[in-house]
Amino acid sequence: MDSLRAVCSANNACSFITGGNLSRSKLSSNNIYYTSCCDSKASQYKRKTQIEYNVLSFKQSRLNNDYRWIEGKKHVGKAISRQDLDSEAEDSNAKTLLISINKFVVAFFMFCNPYSVIGRTFSTVSASLLVVEKLSDISLLFFIGVLQAMVPLLFMDIYVNGVNQLSDLEIDKINKPYLPLASGQISFTTGAIIVASSLILSFGLAWTIGSWPLIWNVVSCFLLWTAYSINGPLLRWKRHPLLAAICVWATWAVVFPITFFAHMQTFVLKRATIFPRSLVFVIVFMSFYSLGIALFKDIPDIDGDQAYGIQSFAARFGQKRVFWFCVSLFEMAFGIALMAGLTSSSLLVKIVTGLGHAVLAWILWYQAKSVDLTSKASIGSFFMLIWKLLYVAYFLMPLIR
């Protein structure tokens, strides 16, 4: 039975492979042959099937390995992606911080009213040069003395300009909405902290240096500009055009040149107190020029001043009248400087100061004729020109002796 089943199995297998064309009659005579043949082919089929199975198993194994490798790479990719995202987030935060710092620096720069700070700085240098009698006077001690005058007054400048903006917040929203406080770039609290800190630093540095002319300088500026800006009994001088003009004139024509000169003359160089011709000239020149600045600065602010009851000369007499009156004051200042230069004993000084102030006077007059008084931008541009011309004049003043 076992042999019969074996033969049958062999025949079936062989029949499957050969397509079933073998006859039963040949089975008896060729039993051994066909059995052997079928056994051989069955073995080959079995081996082929086994090989194909092994190949499929190998491919499946490779596929599983590849899948596991890809999964691993996916996890690594996810980890790298998170690291990149964290790095990008840190870079973004750093850029945001830098942008915020940059915006604050720009806003703080505008808060300090840069044109007046630059003007006061040139005033310091110009008045300090009046003490120079010979080239040896310009020494390390001289530069230290100039620096001593600059630093406390820099903080006083920040206080003066800051307290004015704090007091004029609502007015500036009409007249100068681009200012840091009016535009909201700097909060009222931050502005108050800056102002208070600057005042303390100004007094502290002046007292530490120990120069009485500098101490009188910061005290005078504090009193004058606090009275000018703050709203209180007998204060808020800017509401009264005459008091406002006196405040500007006293600061730029009297306090600055006298105290800076006295600081360098008596405290730095240890010389006797004198009142030279050159200092008198600076006081006279700045009396006209500072008065012109005091009146001119209210011309573009007429709308806000009228809304809040500030009767400036521009609001009272009209922009056009005040404008040309201010231009006349500036031209008179340059005329005085030209005449003072021509009286100098040095031919070179006569040429430089005479020609220099004549050119400044011509530039001012030429530009004044093209100002559009209905445009705040045009008025503001001319106001900046006034300061730039003063910067140049400050370098010509020490030449006149």
UniProtKB/TrEMBL annotation:
Segments crossing the lipid bilayer: 97-118, 138-160, 181-207, 213-230, 242-262, 274-296, 322-341, 347-365, 377-397
Descriptive protein name: Glycinol 4-dimethylallyltransferase-like
Keywords of the record: Chloroplast, Membrane, Plastid, Transferase, Transit peptide, Transmembrane, Transmembrane helix
Coiled-coil segments on the chain, per record: none
Organism encoding this protein: Vigna radiata var. radiata (Mung bean)
Gene designation per UniProt: LOC106770252
Topology versus the membrane: Multi-pass membrane protein
Superkingdom to which the source organism belongs: Eukaryota
A GO MF term: prenyltransferase activity
Subcellular location: Plastid, Chloroplast membrane
